[in-house]
Amino acid sequence: MFNTLATVPDVIFWEQKYRDNDTPWDLKTPNPVLSYMIRQNYIDKNRNILVLGSGKGYDAHYLAGEGFDVTAVDFSEMAIKQSKNIIAGNGIKKPVFICADIFELNKHFGAEFDQVYEYVTFCAVLPEQREEMLRMVSLILRPGGTLNTVLFPVDGRPGGPPFSIDLKEFIRTASPYMKLKILDKRINSVKPRKNKEVFLQFVRL
Predict the structure, then answer these.
(1) 57 close to 95: Cβ distance less than 8 angstroms
(2) Is the N-terminal amide bond of 192 cis, ω within 30° of 0?
(3) Is 62 exposed, middle or buried (0-12, 13-18, 19+ CB in 10 A)?
(4) CA atoms 91, 92, 97, 103: torsion sign
(5) How many other C-beta atoms lie within 10 A of the C-beta of residue 102?
(6) pLDDT tens-digit profile of 79-95?
């Protein structure tokens, strides 16, 4: 569980979490689903990618090590600082880390990304904020670009964060901005999250 309090998660909330090192969602390693996504050709190292809600940067460093041109964004200045201190990847490519409000991505970027990757960020904001986040993603993706998300948790749990995600509702919420292309439940999730998450790829309209 990310949080047992009825606290509205905001920039201050997440900054304090990282300062207190109270980050139980953090796998302390790259998400293993990334390697599966690469093997399945869901994401392409020849196209640039933005990591949304990059946390301590493990996924961003992993993707850079695999040859991706990576930009990574997070709410928290402390998370970005910790990300920059990680030694990871092959040393040839390094992610560009940016501290920014994910609800104001269009103030920092145009429609310049081929791919966006997200993990445990949609579940971290209030459910009613998801549509705005999806709209922001659509504004920074090039036409035909893809949102690649590993949605967790999809098990109907109460409370949050993490706030449970209803797949049908999420797909419906995304539909004004992007079209679902792939839904894959065969992913190699970490054991505690097995059968509680799913990979979706959307194409920007």
Answers:
(1) yes
(2) no
(3) buried
(4) negative
(5) 21
(6) 898 888 876 555 668 99
pLDDT tens digits for range 123-156: 999 999 999 999 999 999 999 999 999 999 999 9
Single out the residue of 138, 135, 159 nearest to residue 7, CA to CA.
Answer: 159
Using the structure block, give the residue that is written with the tokens 């509702």. Answer: 169
Q: Are 18 and 79 in contact (CB under 8 A)?
A: yes
pTM (2 decimals)? 0.91
Structural tokens at position 129: 């904020």
Bridge pairing between strands 178-184 and 113-119: unpaired
Do 164 and 123 form a contact (C-beta atoms < 8 A)? yes
User: What type of residue sits at position 42?
Assistant: Y
Tokens representing 167 are 């797949």
Complete domains list, the chain, with CATH: 11-21+30-204 (3.40.50.150)
Entry field: residues in the chain: 205
